[in-house]
Hints:
single chain, about 80 residues, alpha+beta, GMP Synthetase, Chain A, domain 3, 4-stranded mixed beta sheet, globular
Amino acid sequence: xxxxxxxxxxxxxxxxxxxxxxxxxxxxxxxxxxxxxxxxxxxxxxxxxxxxxxxxxxxxxxxxxxxxxxxxxxxxxxxxxx
Length: 82
């Protein structure tokens, strides 16, 4: 499960970032997911940062609350050592 959003890095400048919830038993790093995106997506579509998270904030109907998805919910970020 994943969500791609724009993360504001400065006024009027956003980066495409991806938040990913891994399936049980999966062992992949955010950097591996970032490399996969760069290899298989157009440059402007590929995420610049990948975050791993345990779950997403959701509505009562189970939809992802995108406005509440932020680095605060991440357990791991690409470009950092575990």
